[in-house]
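Lab manual, section 2.4: Encoding a predicted structure.

Procedure: take the sequence of the chain (125 residues), apply the prediction step described in section 2.3, and record the output as structure tokens. A sample record is shown.
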Amino acid sequence: MSNKSYVGKRKKGGFSVAKDGAFISEFEWPGNSKIRKTSTTCGRLNPGQKAKLHRHEVSEEMCYVLSGHGEIKVGEIVEKIGKGDVVCIPARAAHSLKNISQKKLLKVLAFYSPMCTDGSTTFLE
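Recorded output:
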């Protein structure tokens, strides 16, 4: 029987406020995980809330919309997004996300490659 685990768990303590203003909950991977080049966060925006415009200097980002509706801005392009949509954001592309609902949370699952770190994000507003 192996003691390896391939299941990432959300960090305890619930959601915290990220530097872009979104509420995020990061995932912890088992110490024996071989995953070293990607990171994952679960993010949420309250009704009417917007994440500040920013870019990841080295990481590509893919966001899967778990629930709610919003607007994503990547570069100069603004698009509406909703449950089941996937947004692909190239490294160094300026982007922001806004919850356009008046009543529902906007929840996304974001994947970064290579791993996104605090020092690798530039805030533009």
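Check your result against the sample. The mean pLDDT is 86.
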